[in-house]
């Protein structure tokens, strides 16, 4: 089924002249550039990269067959190897255009196996007798040797992300010596040994570079070894063994990926997943080293998903022979002409395409039935938010409806990630407010990944529509809403009022007032002003909601104005006055607001009482019972005189 293809080739590949029309095709892993080289007279070179800036075409003198060709970072300097002894350099810097120089390796009788740019002007020669680290000086048309190291080398591998070169040493090639490069320095890292499979004597097995890959997974550098035969005869299947490299400290064997088959394999790393391509079955497997099988020994991994092929890819016909109506030609997947590079690149030199391998998350949802494991898998992926929200919606609806314990597990996993992000964000905010401390490095604002699913996301994409489902039991809906609230409380995240509103509306809709009362009484629903206002609006449906609202506002202690407004709107004017006196705010309240409310009750004695209270307040505060013009109480003074007579007004006390 096409919807089950969870791997695909990118839609916009890098196109270059295929191998049939050029002499040689080279790939530079550091710049992700393909060099198509055509000899004859002058050597024509077409460089294609991931964008237009990194693409260029030029000609250079034909000085022999090109064995290796690479640009330094930013296309500043071109290095070309034509002989085993030297490398030629051509400047592409605008200030020093086309200045050329050549550098022979310093070690006598050594042959250059290849070279790696570690900076725009720093390069490493790897010879069969060691490595030589140079600085290129284009203005002086020369190179300066920074450092060298002698060691017998069989082959090498370079990881551009970390600027680490791996050298294969010893007769069997299984002792690997890493070197790290940074800003003009070369550091020798601890060497380590790859455990080769046991073979019957006198046969010897040598480590081939075809079985080694170097890549960064979850921010850590790993050497991946494709072990074709297990030591034990009862388990002849291949496996991938991961060794974690540390700049300091020994390299350790950390993970084993069980392939459960034999044959020819190739490795990629996509979105922190190890992808193993199997040529004979034309399928791929994916492994997540952070997912651990409960029935496996520590760090032994089975594939996360069943083996599937890469999604079929069709190559559009181009050129003068192309007919508009002619359908695209299917690409031969898992072709023997494919070359795989780290971390996620597949090149077909015969067809002239460079693809980036991509993981499609939606098909994984139906292939991984365990919702907890599925969430663990999705939360570590790059573009996971909408897929996770669709999993949550699917879990609450239709045939795939999960049980409450499953729902609880999913909510807990989401909210743990949410909480961790909030804590990091809070730490950053506090650090910014307190200012930089002495000797501390500048803090970077934490990046909010797509794995952070907050309350707004859940409400908008899942819970709001779920609560309106007519074909779902209201008890299940309430239980799910309360489960989400429980999960938030468990990790001490303040629950937003709109989630409580969903619960309350569901309870009222189904006349579950006893449950509502209990939720409020035992503070299952936390106090908030919006929630108190919602309760007030329910008074006509459920009269006790009014008192529940007032009690909530009193507990908040910052909602005195709201309580006064509520009481006045219910014409409980004396109650409002008593309340504001109990909290000591009666000297600052608006006299007009209370007199307006008292007039609206049509209770003359109540109006008299309220009017007299404010006269006494005026006398106490200002020495006069009269109202100030700014209080706008003139109409109430006129009304008081009409009803009770002018003599009823308080007289100013004269001393």
Task: Characterise the protein shown here.
The chain is an alpha+beta fold. The strands form 8 sheets. Strands 1, 2, 30, 31 and 32 form a 5-stranded antiparallel sheet that branches. The longest helix has about 30 residues, at about 405-435. The protein is elongated, with a radius of gyration of 38 Å. The model has no long low-confidence stretch (mean pLDDT about 85).
Radius of gyration: 38 Å
Number of separate strands? 32
Instruction: Identify the overall geometry.
Output: elongated
**What amount of the residues lies in strands?**
25-35%
The main sheet comes to: 5 strands, antiparallel
Tell me the structural class. Answer: alpha+beta
Count the helices. How many?
15
**Cα distance spanning the termini:** 100 Å
Overall helicity: 25-40%
Oligomer: single chain
Mean of all residue-level pLDDT scores: 85
GO biological process, one term: regulation of autophagy
Domain Regulator of MON1-CCZ1 complex N-terminal: 25-143
Domain Mic1: 381-628
Protein name: Mic1 domain-containing protein
Summary keywords:
single chain; 655 residues; alpha+beta; five-stranded antiparallel beta sheet; 15 helices; 32 strands; 29% helix; 26% strand; elongated
Break the fold down into its secondary structure elements and pairings.
Layout: E1 7-9, E2 14-15, E3 24-28, E4 33-38, E5 42-48, E6 56-61, E7 68-71, E8 77-81, E9 86-91, E10 100-104, E11 112-119, E12 122-127, E13 130-137, E14 142-150, E15 156-159, E16 164-169, E17 175-182, E18 185-188, E19 192-193, E20 212-217, E21 220-227, E22 239-245, E23 252-258, E24 265-270, E25 273-278, E26 283-287, E27 300-301, E28 314-315, E29 329-330, E30 338-341, E31 345-348, E32 353-359, H1 362-367, H2 371-379, H3 385-396, H4 404-434, H5 455-466, H6 474-490, H7 497-509, H8 513-521, H9 529-537, H10 545-556, H11 560-569, H12 573-582, H13 591-600, H14 604-622, H15 634-644
Parallel strand pairs: 23-27
Antiparallel strand pairs: 1-32, 2-32, 3-4, 4-5, 5-6, 7-8, 8-9, 9-10, 11-12, 12-13, 13-14, 15-16, 16-17, 17-18, 17-19, 20-21, 21-22, 22-23, 24-25, 25-26, 28-29, 30-31, 31-32
Protein name: Mic1 domain-containing protein
């Amino acid at each position: 089924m096409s919807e089950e293809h969870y791997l695909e080739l990118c839609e916009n590949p890098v196109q270059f002249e295929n191998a049939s029309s050029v002499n040689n095709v080279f790939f530079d892993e550091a710049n992700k550039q393909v060099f198509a080289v055509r000899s004859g007279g002058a050597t024509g070179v077409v460089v294609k990269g991931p964008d237009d800036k990194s693409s260029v075409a030029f000609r250079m003198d034909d000085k022999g067959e090109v064995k290796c060709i690479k640009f330094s970072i930013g296309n500043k300097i071109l290095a070309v190897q034509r002989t085993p002894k030297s490398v030629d350099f051509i400047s592409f810097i605008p200030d020093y255009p086309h200045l050329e120089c050549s550098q022979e390796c310093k070690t006598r009788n050594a042959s250059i196996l290849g070279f790696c740019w570690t900076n725009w002007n720093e390069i490493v020669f790897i010879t069969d007798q060691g490595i030589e680290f140079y600085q290129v000086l284009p203005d002086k048309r020369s190179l300066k040797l920074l450092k060298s190291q002698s060691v017998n080398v069989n082959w090498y591998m370079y990881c551009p992300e970390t600027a680490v070169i791996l050298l294969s040493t010893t007769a069997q090639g299984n002792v690997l010596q890493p070197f790290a490069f940074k800003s003009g320095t070369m550091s020798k890292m601890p060497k380590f040994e790859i455990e080769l499979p046991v073979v019957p004597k006198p046969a010897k097995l040598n480590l081939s570079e075809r079985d080694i890959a170097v890549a960064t997974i979850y921010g850590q550098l790993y050497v991946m070894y494709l072990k074709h035969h297990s030591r034990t005869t009862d388990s002849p299947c291949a496996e991938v063994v991961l060794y974690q490299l540390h700049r300091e400290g020994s390299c350790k064997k950390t993970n084993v990926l069980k392939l459960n088959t034999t044959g020819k394999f190739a490795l990629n790393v996509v979105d922190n997943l190890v992808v193993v391509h199997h040529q004979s079955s034309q399928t791929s497997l994916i492994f997540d080293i952070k997912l651990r099988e409960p029935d496996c020994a520590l760090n032994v991994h089975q594939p996360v998903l069943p083996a599937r092929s890469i999604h079929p890819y069709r190559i559009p016909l181009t050129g003068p022979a192309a007919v508009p109506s002619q359908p695209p030609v299917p690409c031969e997947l898992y072709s023997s002409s494919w070359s795989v590079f780290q971390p996620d690149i597949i090149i077909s030199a015969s067809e002239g395409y460079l693809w980036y391998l991509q993981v499609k998350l939606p098909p994984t949802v139906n292939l991984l039935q365990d919702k907890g494991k599925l969430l663990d898998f999705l939360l570590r992926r790059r573009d996971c938010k909408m897929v996770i929200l669709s999993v949550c919606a699917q879990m609450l609806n239709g045939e795939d409806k999960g049980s409450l314990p499953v729902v609880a597990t999913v909510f807990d996993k989401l909210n743990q990630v949410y909480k961790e992000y909030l804590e990091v964000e809070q730490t950053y905010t506090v650090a910014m407010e307190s200012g930089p401390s002495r000797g501390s490095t500048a803090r970077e604002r934490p990046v909010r990944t797509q794995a952070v699913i907050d309350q707004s996301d859940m409400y908008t994409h899942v819970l709001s529509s779920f609560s309106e489902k007519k074909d779902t039991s209201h008890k299940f809906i309430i239980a799910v809403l309360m489960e989400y609230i429980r999960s938030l409380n468990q990790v001490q995240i303040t629950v937003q009022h709109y989630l409580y509103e969903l619960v309350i509306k569901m309870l009222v809709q189904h006349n579950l007032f006893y449950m509502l009362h209990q939720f409020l009484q035992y503070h299952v629903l936390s106090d908030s002003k919006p929630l108190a206002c919602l309760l007030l609006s329910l008074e006509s449906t459920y009269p006790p909601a009014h008192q529940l609202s007032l009690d909530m506002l009193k507990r908040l202690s910052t909602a005195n104005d709201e309580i006064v407004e509520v009481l006045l709107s219910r014409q409980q004017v004396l109650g409002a006055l008593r309340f504001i006196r109990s909290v000591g705010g009666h000297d600052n309240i608006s006299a007009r607001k209370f007199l307006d409310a008292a007039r609206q009750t049509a209770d003359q004695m109540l109006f008299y009482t309220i009017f007299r209270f404010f006269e006494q307040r005026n006398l106490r505060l200002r020495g006069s019972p009269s109202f100030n013009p700014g209080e706008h109480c003139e109409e109430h003074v006129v009304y008081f005189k009409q009803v009770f007579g002018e003599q009823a007004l308080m007289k100013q006390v004269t001393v």
